[in-house]
Design a protein that fits this description.
Layout (H helix, E strand, L loop, with lengths): L2 H5 L8 E3 L16 H15 L11 E2 L18 E6 L5 E5 L12 H13 L8 E2 L3 H4 L14 E2 H9 L4 H12 L2 H14 L22 H14 L2 H6 L3 E4 L2 E4 L11 E9 L3 E10 L2 E10 L2 H18 E5 L8 E4 L7 E6 L4 E5 L6 E7 L12 E9 L2 E10 L8 H12 L1
Antiparallel strand pairs: 1-8, 2-4, 3-4, 3-11, 5-6, 7-8, 9-10, 10-11, 12-15, 13-14, 14-18, 16-17, 17-18
Helix pairs in contact: 3-6, 5-6, 6-7
Length: 423
């Protein structure tokens, strides 16, 4: 493997630890690294790992979730784009050029892993299943977990090599295991991207190696990351690990934020000359899980600092709050058409809302009814909608349902009410 191709995917300061000498591979692009090569890679990382600073003015930061009292999100002039998302609600807490199309580099492997986990969940693959390594997988350039056609490797090992080592060889081996060929797998990647609404994304390979037609955006990376966290949380069990050993070769995680922030447990990084230093990180901060994506950074340290700045911003100025649960009264429908004259009303479901911290106590609700109560009302019947707002801004709308049966008014009840009107 050419030294330059290895370093294109490695964060500054990341080390390759050799636990024991590995047998050298015969292919010229895949000679096993030596301890001396690792030291050389570390010594030259500053020279090769730097990316030119973004040209032009920095992207303008914004917060769709903020109110007028919320501080403006951080300006990150070293980044080409960023997004900060609440993983539970999908609320965007901060963004700058969120739909700018950028080369994703190894962030591409998020979709590769997503499709592998789908295959596992559907029973098409098993974690302990052995996967054959093709010559195509073995010949992949860039970062690698060092598999070859003689390797006996499982899906679980390949997932570790994909997520921790960012192995291009692992990506191709897994793609072929899922779809039979990388071409068919790429079709699956783009089909899934369309299902998830990743409108800025087009995949051309499962690795992220440079291709003019390969692109994504910070927003799409955040959306995909949220889908992974919700549907395949086991991804984080791997991405939080700071190193992985395969074939007696221990490689440190490419994610530099793991070593700096104990609240971070994933997700992925990417680096090519075209992409710059991209980091997609998720962190559990208190009761909130945040997703922060930065692209185009000039160095790993700059991109790590940018991630920390975004996570701190989200933690300080936003919070998640949950609306009343089903069965809890939040209002009353009053009508003379009902025998009891009224019926308690509650939400059909609770909703978690992301709001600025200063809006938690300003949360209000209103009920709009759209039912004729004359025939009477049955418990659980939808009566209208409940709208939750804060400072005049609508945050969510859920169905309003009856919490009890309410028969129609009898003739005797109507007569009594009419008489009381005249008394």
């Amino acid at each position: 493997m050419a030294l330059r191709n290895v370093l294109l995917y490695a964060p500054l300061g990341a080390a390759l630890f050799i636990a024991a000498p590995a047998a050298a591979k015969t292919h010229p692009h895949h000679a096993a690294p030596s301890a001396a090569a690792a030291i050389t890679a570390q010594a030259e990382s500053d020279k090769i790992g730097a990316t030119p600073m973004p040209s032009g003015p920095p992207p303008t930061p914004d917060s769709p979730t903020a109110d007028k009292s919320t501080p403006v999100p951080p300006t990150l002039p070293d980044m080409t784009a960023y997004v900060l998302m609440d993983a539970q609600t999908g609320a965007i807490l901060a963004e700058a050029a969120p739909h700018l199309q950028i080369p994703p580099a190894s962030l591409t492997k998020l979709m590769t892993a997503h499709l592998v986990y789908q295959a596992l969940h559907h029973g098409a693959l098993k974690l302990d299943q052995t996967v054959p390594v093709s010559v195509n997988a073995w010949h992949q350039q860039g970062s690698t977990m060092f598999i070859d056609p003689n390797s006996v490797v499982t899906v679980d090992q390949l997932l570790h090599g994909l997520i921790i080592d960012s192995g291009n060889d692992a990506a191709v081996a897994l793609a072929e295991a899922v779809a039979g060929s990388t071409g068919s797998f790429v079709q699956m990647m783009n089909t899934e991207a369309a299902k998830l609404g990743l409108t800025d994304t087009n995949y051309t390979n499962p690795t992220g190696l440079p291709d003019p037609a390969l692109h994504t955006s910070a927003m799409d990376v955040a959306l995909l990351s949220r889908a992974i966290i919700q549907d395949e949380p086991e991804f984080l069990d791997i991405s939080k690990q700071e190193s992985y050993t395969y074939a007696n070769i221990t490689q440190a995680s490419w994610n530099p934020v793991l070593a700096k922030d104990p609240t971070v447990d994933g997700l992925k990084t990417g680096l090519t000359n075209e992409s710059g230093h991209c980091i997609d990180a998720t962190a559990q901060r208190g009761d909130m899980r945040l997703i922060a994506v930065v692209t185009g950074g000039p160095t790993w340290s700059a991109s790590t600092a940018a991630i920390e700045s975004l996570l701190d911003y989200g933690q300080k100025f936003f919070t998640d709050t949950t609306t009343p649960p089903p069965g809890q009264p939040v209002g009353t429908l009053v009508s003379p058409a009902l025998d009891a004259g009224s019926v308690p009303v509650g939400p059909a479901q609770s909703v978690t809302l992301t709001v600025p911290t200063d809006e938690v106590n300003a949360l209000t609700h209103s009920i709009a009814y759209n039912i004729d109560p004359t025939p009477g009302i049955t418990k659980g019947e939808q009566l209208g909608t409940i709208t939750y707002s804060a400072n005049g801004k609508v945050l969510a709308t859920v169905p309003a349902v009856a919490l009890a049966d309410a028969p129609p008014a009898t003739l005797l009840t109507k007569i009594k009410r009419k008489l009381s009107h005249y008394l």
